[in-house]
Structures are given as structure tokens and as C-alpha cells.
Amino acid sequence: MYTNGQIVLLKNAAQTKEEIIRLLSEELYQKGYVTSDFATAVLSRETVYPTGLDINGLGVAIPHTDADKVQSPQLAFATLKEPVAFQNMVDISQTINVSMVFLLAIKKSDEQVFMLQKLIEIFQNQELMDQLQKVEQEKEFIRIIRQAGIQ
Amino acid sequence: MKKILLACGSGIATSTAVNAKLTQMLEENGYAGKFKITQCKISEVPALSAEHDFCVATTMQPTEMKCPFISGISFLTGAGLDATFQEIKTQMEK
Known about the structure:
The structure holds two protein chains of two kinds.
Chain A: E1 7-12, H1 17-30, H2 38-48, E2 52-55, E3 58-61, E4 74-87, E5 95-105, H3 113-123, H4 126-134, H5 138-147
Parallel strand pairs in A: 1-4, 3-5
Antiparallel strand pairs in A: 2-3, 4-5
Chain B: E1 2-8, H1 14-28, E2 35-41, H2 45-49, E3 54-57, E4 69-71, H3 74-77, H4 81-93
Parallel strand pairs in B: 1-2, 1-3, 3-4
């Protein structure tokens, strides 16, 4: 269900976090998963509570926002041609060069525990992350994510 | 009974994931029934910290904390999780 929208942008040429968040959010909006102000809400949250993570040297970001901007839960994914700058979740003064973005449209956290846990398991699986970064086809990306336990 | 405050920016995404993992680790280490986790937004931490034993969060440490603070970022990244859990165990034994 979290991947039904098949929202994946591979080797995207976006140059800023704003650009990639807006591109992914637009797809979420077009497919009815989020409200029209979702991207703006995600971006403004990012300035206060950034979501860049350094995972074994790989820059990953998990932008998200409050549930009232979400119609039904969904994940949107992007890999980037060139890394874009996000601030570090644990230290807003630090920049992380992010090459993978997992945009989370989350509705009710208690119903999404399993998905969030699986997502973190994927992050911590270096082999899987390497695979995801190299994927050339959207369907293949979704297949790997589903195989890792996120439906 | 240790009262643990678990926070992230929104109180819904990363703290939910950490909650599940932390609960599992505490139970596996013999602390079942000996802790209560309250999940919240990081902005609520200063006000709630006085009535909790310690706080685990995935964000920066807020100012005006009234209980010990432990960074829970390793629950997300995997790196340094053993050290983080050791800190948590130390707080559990206090």
C-alpha cells in the first residue's frame, strides 16, 4: 500500500532539496496522497527539524510533515545524479550531501510502525542501499523495496 | 519504573521507529515491565522533562532540559547503537 503510487525518480538532476521535495510532492499530490500545501509544509519543517542522515557515509534524507497534510499514507523515492545539501537531523549546523531521498507521507504513526521499522532496516543494510542507488528502472526500485518488507 | 521520554521533530515518524526498536531491546535485556515510554515532539521535551527519568531523541538536544539527554540517532543509522544502548542501560540502572 505504501508503494502503490510507484513514485520513484531515478538519477534525478535536481540541484537543491527544495527542487527534489517539490518534484516528489507534486507526484504525491497528483495521485491524491497529499494536500496541495504538503511540499511547503515539508520544506518549512525541514528548516526547523532537518532530516538528513549520514548512514555509513551515505547521505539519506527522510523529509516528512504533520499528518493533516496527508490524505492517505505513501512513500516517494528519489536517487540523485549529484548529491544535494540537507541539514543534519542531529545538528542543524551540519550539511549532509544527500544522494537518496525517501519522502514520507505519514497519516497515523501507530499504524505505520512496521513500515518505519522496515525502512530503517533497509537503511542499515548497506548491500540493499547500494543496489537501490544503482537501480536504473523505477519498477526495479519498487520491487526491491517490496521485497525488503514494505508493501 | 523508569519514565522515558522519546522525541523527534514531529513526534510521529522517527520516534515511532525508535520506540519499536528501543522497546524490543529493553525487553530483551530484562527490563520488561520496568519502563514506560512517552513519545512526543521535541518542542514538548523541556516541559515534560522534569517528570521523566531520561530522554532519547533523534534531534539536537533542546536547551532547558531537566533530565539526562541521550541521542538516539544510532537507532536510525545503525552506527554506534551498542554505545547508545549502553548509555540507556546506565540510566535504567540508576
